[in-house]
Each structure stands twice: as C-alpha cells, then as structure tokens.
Amino acid sequence: MIRLVLSLSLAVSLIAGPAFAQQPGITGFLGDNARVQAEREAQFDALLNGENLRGWMQHMTTRPHNVGSPKAKENAEYIAGLFRSWGYETEIEVFHVLFPTPKFRELRVLKPIPFTASLTEKYVSEDPAILAALEAEALPPFNAYSIDGDVSGELVYVNYGLPADYEVLERHGIDMKGKIAIARYGQSWRGIKPKVAAEKGAVGCIIFNDPGEDGFFQGDAYPAGAYKHDTGVQRGSVVDMPTRPGDPLTPNEGATKTKRRFDPKKLDTVTAIPVLPISYADALPIFRAMSGPVAPKEWRGAMPVTYRLGGEGSAVVKLKLEFDWKLVPTYNVIAKMTGSTYPDQWIVRANHHDAWVIGARDPMSGLMTVLEQARAFGEMAKTGWRPKRTLVFGAWDGEEPGLLGSTEWVEEHAKQLGEKAVAYVNTDGTSRGFLFLGGSHSLETMAGEAVGAVTDPLTGVSLSERARSYQLVSGTPEQKAAAKEDSTMRIGALGSGSDYTAFIDHLGIASFNLGFGGEGEGGEYHTCFDTFDHYTRFVDPDFSYGVALTKVAGRLTLRLADADVLPFEFTRAAKTYRRYADELVKLADTMRDDTETLNKMIAENRYTLAADPKEKYVPPTPKDPVPHLNFAPILNALDALDAVAQRYGDAVKTLQSSGNALSPERAAALDKILYQSERSLIGEDGLPRRPWFRHLVYAPGYYTGYGVKTFPGVREGIEERAWAETGAQIATLAEALTRYAGDVDEAAGIVAGK
Q1: Which end of the chain has the lower number of beta carbons within 10 A, N or C?
Q2: What is the pLDDT of residues 607-620, one digit of tens each?
Q3: Which of 402, 579, 580 lies closest to 502, judged by CA?
Q4: Where does a domain end: 300, 325, 350?
Q5: Tens digit of pLDDT for each residue in 371-404?
Q6: Same domain, 149 and 273
Q7: Is 5 inside a domain boundary?
Q8: What's the maximum distance between 2 C-alpha atoms anywhere in the chain?
C-alpha cells in the first residue's frame, strides 16, 4: 500500500475493494449483549484523540529507522514503554535476520553518450533536523536482496517487466539474452521485474519511477506538492516473496540467534541478477541514449523523450553492485492483555515499525492506530472492563525487506498460534478518502457491521455509504453491479505485501488488512520524502482519518474479543467462493477461444502488428489447445458448503431468537471449530513451486507479488497452461472445501445442541 494505498503497496498495494453498507445488529452477540457492546464501543470512541497519533508519529520519525538501525531499536523500546504504561504484559522479542546493505553502487552509460547516474536523492526537506539525520544515517537507494554483480549489456525497455511485456518484445524480434532490462515501477510488485527479466535471459535490471505514475504529471512535486521529486527513488525489497517471505537463511523456522542457517551463497529467494532502483532524473538521460523501435503507445510515460525499446545496437550500460551480507537484529514488540473467559483464544492486532527511511506514512500512520487503540483499551480496563479473549498487540520490525519480523515470529510460535489465534488485524499505512478492506470472507458480515457503525470524518455519512457511493460512481462495471444488487459490504481478498501474510497464507489464521486511500495520494512512497512534514501537509493533516481507522480496527478487535459466539458467518464466504469458481470456468473457456482464434490467424498469415514496416517483426508462436477441464469436484464441494452454511446461519438465528445462551462448554467448543475452520483451507503440501504458501483460497500471484490470486493453485495452473497440475490442484482444492464444509456442519450441530 501504501500497501493499502500505495504499498495497499493501499500497491495500498494494496489490494482490496472499498467496503460498504451497515448491517443490522452485531453478529456474535446474544440478547441484550449487543446493546452493551454498542455502549462499550461508544466509550472507546470517546477516548480517542488525534493529537496522540500526531505526537507519537513526530517522536518516532525524527531519524531513519530501517531494520538494524539505532533508531529502530530506540523506537521499539519507546513502543514497549508505552504498552507497559497502559497496563500490558510486554516484551521485545529479537530475531537475527539477513539484511544486505550497499557497499558499492554504479550505473553508467558506456555508449553512445557517456553518462554516470547520480543514484542519490536531493534532500529538499525544510526540516533541518531531518536533513541532518538523513545525511548521516539514511541508507542510499537500493533494492534489498539483489545479488552482487558487475555486468554490462545493451539496454532494453521492458515496460512494467511482466511476462506479457516480453511477448511484445519477442514480436519485435528483441532477444533479452545478455541484455540489461529497464522497467518502470507499477502493475506488479517490484521483485517480479528482475525475476522475469532473469527468466528471459537478462543479466541485470534497472527500475525507475516514471513521472506519469506519481511525479510531476500528477501534480506538484515535493516540497511544493505531494508528488515525487525528480530525484526521488523508491527503495524496496526484491526478495522472491511469492516463493517465501521472511529471513532467507531460516525458512520455516524463527531466526533466533542460535538457529542453524543456510549458506548465503545458495539462497533461493535472492535475485538471480543484480537490480537497482533509480530516479527519473537519472532515467531521462538513459532513455535519451536509447535507440531501437518506438515503444507501443501504452508503454510511454511522461518523461520528455521518445520512449524506445532498445535492443541490438542500442545504448550499452554498466551496472555494478556490491552488498554487505550481514545479520541484523529485529525488535518485535509484543504486548498482551489476558482474556477473562477464554485466555487461550488470541486476537492479534499489529503493524510494523521499521521503514526504509523516515517512514511517516509507511508505516507510522498505520502503527499509530495500533497504539491509540491499545491506549484506549488500557483506559477501559481501568474502569473494570476485561476482554473475554486475550488481546495480543504487536509492532513488527523488518517488514520492509521481506516481512521479516512478523514471519519469524509466526514461524517460531507456529504451534501455539495454530492452537490459539482466532484472527489477525493489520493496518500497514493510511491516508484519507475511502476505506479499503481485505480479509477472510468468513468474517465479512462482521466487518460490514463494524464499518457501517463508523462515520466518515469529511462527509458525515457512514464509511460504508461513502465507499458504496464511490463504487457506484467510479468503480469497475463489476463493482457497480455489485453495489447496485447488494447493499451489504463485499471485502477484498488478501494477497501479500504486509504482515498479515504469514498469519493467513502460512497458518490459515483469519485476517484483515485495512486503511484509507484515494484522496491523500503522493509520490513519497519508500523515498526520503516520506516525512512528518509531508504527511501533515498532504496526507491526513488533522489525523481525523487516523482516528476513523482506529475506530474501525478497534471495533473489529473488540467484537472478536468479546463476542458471545465468535462472529464467523459462512453464507457470504460460500457465495464468494462460488464467484471464484465461476471465474475459473470463464478463464478456461476464454483461453480456449482465444487460443483457437490466435492459432487460426497465424495459420492464415493474418496476424499483423501495427508498427513501422521497416521494423523487424516476428509473429507469435502457435499455442497448444486448451483442454476441457473437469471442475465438478470444486462445484460439488461448493454445493455442500452452500447447504451447511445455510444450516449454520439458521441455527444461529434460532439461538438468537430464543434468548438463550450456550453453556460454557458448548460455547468454547463452538468457538474453536469456528476459528479453526480457516485452517481447513490449508494444503499441507502448499502451492506448486512455493510450498510455504499453503492457503488454497488466497495467495499472492507468482507473477504479481502483492496482488491476490484466488483459488491460486488452480488459477495459476490454467494461466501457465500446466494441465496435469491444474487437474491435481482441482482435486486438492475440492478436498479443502469439503473439509471446510465439514467444520461448518459441525458448528451448526453444536449451536443446535446435537
């Protein structure tokens, strides 16, 4: 979003569709307890104060606080002190992770016109203290987990660097072997760009931010405006996160100090080629030196230059990188408030505290809501309230290089979390505008009710109604249709890019990721310009949306913590999964039709490219036919899920209308089967080519990085035309959905007293 807005990147990242419309009642609360819960939430709201968010952000963004820096440790200790002052049992848990930092960076154009890239940002901040800190402590622009390298080659512009972009280059007769790719940020996670470039034979990769994306083309550049300064560089990790996040040296195990580690020379998640990010101030002279075919119209950005593809006879560049491959400590702050009734059921609420440089929006705007929520809960505890279930607050370190702190914590405590964790709530960063919310669809009803109970700071209507209005006016045709036919909220699916990843994708713990976006845009993401000054001038000046996000996340946490019956509901999950299955059927049918059309056009020599007739052109290669796939196992499993989901819903309605409560024993048994149901969607063998990712409904795409692929094993099997693999994944998914339906059926029986 932010991972939710830019990184969401919020890339903001992010990820999920706007939420809308208020639901009646409060799911999970029986009888008069719904009224009591509403009063408690009003008490919570009254305790919130935006000035707290402002003060904490200002204090923690005075200096760079990347993982391994003195300020990162200082901030962790400060956060731990806050939690302790509010009454939480608090510890700092340390892991030791691989974090390479630059020793040498060089990018030069050798011919036709010599040029040496500056590879620096001009610190234009008006705050002298921040300027001094940046000059003394900031890491220079780089991509973490690029390999060392000293390579030279002809340059090729590869657009966003996705597999489809290389098909265009191939049709222009451009061979990537021995070349250096230059790609613009956008459309996918940055780590995909060197990954695909290496697969195509490139020996190096350069990534730049085009001003058409987040620079002067969008608005005034910082400090006059919010958008990217011409020397601004988006730092970021290029570790192969779709294969496995976390410390590359200790897969599937927490990186404690004494843990046995892999050989750093044999790592499978670092890049195969050197990669470096640059500013568009450095990119412009490089593009001016390039020759070759003019790039397709949709590949052109906003730099004042003719965008060319390069290739044979084009500019030759030299890229040389050396890194210090060292271990650094990560400081995870963990704070607990033990539950009064179900101490072994945990609600985890967290965000990270490390940044690439100053990190006001990413991550501090999201972390501030965690702190204010915890402070308010601490104040409520002083009045006699105690959550029924244990609250676990976290502030992760090392998220930026590869979700290091959260992944290592989850891997170290996997058995305990598998038994106890009910749900995870994440807020990576936030802006202002519309609420974006992604998560597990078994909690969609509860999320809709929580969102509908919070008022938008600007318009005075509920967040639900504002988000729904946005979809009706500016959404895709599918979003508009959904908003018209269904006034209740539809949440997005989670891919990756933030700290929820290990919880949902690896362990099958129901999760949320949320934040605001759409009206506080800018170009500061992962640059030295993501400062307190930038945030308070251009993003959320009065922190009113930070408070609104605290209200939403607070309600999600409170309702999970205090519900009489955990607020899982399965009819909407079943409906969503049915939609995913329909998409698979449509995908296969569309690919079959497109393949037949393409092959016929090639056979009849009718496939042409609208380009300069002087340019070299190679027609595409015919593709193998798409077979008729048997989706019946998935569809039959979904039929069963529909039936038991309705049975569970009816049983809960009967319980609510009776005015009775479940016995403590039945309630505890029901809770466990409800929150463990998400684990049934885990495949023990994981996804093809990446066994760490085990959720069979949600996963980041192998070639998207952050963006979600639903029913990923089957979907990517179809996309990659791996038909035997697709058949096996259909069977695996059907088995998981059948297990899931069995859990729902068991839950219905418990509610009904059978």
Answers
A1: C
A2: 665 556 666 677 78
A3: 402
A4: 325
A5: 999 999 999 999 999 999 999 999 999 999 999 9
A6: yes
A7: no
A8: 82
